[in-house]
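Internal QA ticket QA-208
Title: Verify multi-chain structure generation after dependency bump
Assignee: T.L.

Test input:
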Amino acid sequence: MALTFYYGSGSPYAWRVWLALEHKGIPYELKTVSFSAGDLTKPEYLAMNPRHKVPTIAEGDFSLYESAAILEYLEEQYSTGKVLFPGSVRHRATIRRLVREADEYLAHALERLVDHVLFTKQEKWDLQEIAAGRKAFLEELAIFEGYLRGDWFGVELCAADFTIFPIIALCLRMEKKKPDLNVTGALGPKIAAWMKRMQALPYFDKTYPPHWKA
Ligand SMILES: N[C@@H](CCC(=O)N[C@@H](CS)C(=O)NCC(=O)O)C(=O)O
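Actual output:
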């Protein structure tokens, strides 16, 4: 049964799922929702996802939301030869820990900045709050810099890479609105080189948020 992927451009959580679908080579139908047109609060969407967020996947009458759970589902449901949780039991547990840490700490730090920079009008910016948010994000990034021992966050490219990359990419994207945020200049050397490896993945451009290309 064909998988439908409900996606919203710019969502780091939806981007994670898109990268995972492409990595595993799972066929899917992409449905891009419009935040501004209220697609997420339409009854048919709320029936699949009462939290009115992207991503959601659906296969017939089965639907699933929460990006971390979706990656686990894709891994168990689709044996394509490409895995999201490679390695030994301990390696796979470490990937799950990294996904959890990325959602619990790095994404929380990002969302604080998103609220203050993207979702607040420029004339109402609280520069002290933004500076504190930047500091908190960079402190988190330093921890993740320490976790990167090889080319990827796992023994191979894995769910943790697909989770962490979009979170950092959205933070860097905010520099378009506030250039002196300058998180790019504060990236550690290992994360900076890893981001280049992610950007070189054959399906990277396909998954790049469409409205960022404009
Ligand atoms: N924990 C969720 C977060 C999803 C999320 O926050 N999605 C945002 C976009 S980044 C959204 O759809 N927001 C729309 C809304 O809340 O109405 C996941 O990992 O899937």
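Spot checks passed. Residues 8, 11, 13, 40, 52-55, 66-68 surround glutathione (CB under 6 Å).
Status: verified.
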